[in-house]
């Protein structure tokens, strides 16, 4: 084995580090709202990317500027939401909107949002093939300290071939991406938790005298999220993460899916996992207004961008979207393939309650106009969610 730089240069070894450097500082159940006791957790999805979750020219004041995304985040924080989850995007989806093409990188975005907020959980979304584990572990730890334990890392295997080609490589086969992801998260976890130096000698990563100080703020490690819904994705989530995200078409299928994921985590890995969904929420004073606003998103949709997403998903790049490719193309236009929640405040409350009853423990969602509609949601839906016991 080749001598290390320390050996070649005769460097003095690192003395044992104090506990303040080698241990996380605080139980995450005390710091991170994702581990709080809200029965139905709520979050916003995609406030760092152009058009958010709608591939549409429907009217909206939403724009990707730092001032605007920070204002949305602070409003969600004041209302009492639990988490903000950004979309990791390196290349837009073309069409007339170039959907999501104008976007902020998520680790640096999360660091800024963490400093600008007080209570809400803040995630970064990481395409694992694009970020080395050492860099990811250090960035995550830094954001976790900025937020004092409110950070979460959303793990994405990288499913869009044009994006992966931007990094000079070919897209791995589906299940190979999860094998790579397992080695990646094992590496990151060791950097977060090992008190001293260690070595890695895997198929994808090698390194000697590895170390990372300080450790994350929250113990035992930051929250981990994943939206894999294929067999390999479910296996990865059950083994590794705290929250699996999924969108399905019926409450019956949701109930079967959530039971499956939680049972696999318990039976195969002796651990608990939360399951949440995502989608578009359209809430208005009347049912007719809500349905017309939702339909306007579809009618003014960017079918070019939606067609590109469907072709990528249908090529086998993402097995998680197979159901949507075949049956629910409009869901990409209005909610990125997610579960639509449309109606009056009372109806939205009923639909969220039905999702919760079917096993979903939370929802991260988009809005046609995030900043303007958040205030309405806070004033009209949050009190009803408290009345029915979904929120405290």
TrEMBL record:
GO molecular function terms attached to this record: monooxygenase activity; oxidoreductase activity, acting on paired donors, with incorporation or reduction of molecular oxygen
InterPro entries found in the cross-reference section: Luciferase-like_dom, Luciferase-like_sf, SsuD_RutA_monooxygenase
Domain Luciferase-like, chain residue ranges per copy: 58-361
Renumbered residue ranges of the record's region Disordered: 1-32
Record's keyword terms, sorted: Flavoprotein, FMN, Monooxygenase, Oxidoreductase
Entry-linked CDD domains: Alkanesulfonate_monoxygenase (cd01094)
Oxidoreductase recorded as keyword: yes
Protein name: Alkanesulfonate monooxygenase SsuD/methylene tetrahydromethanopterin reductase-like flavin-dependent oxidoreductase (Luciferase family)
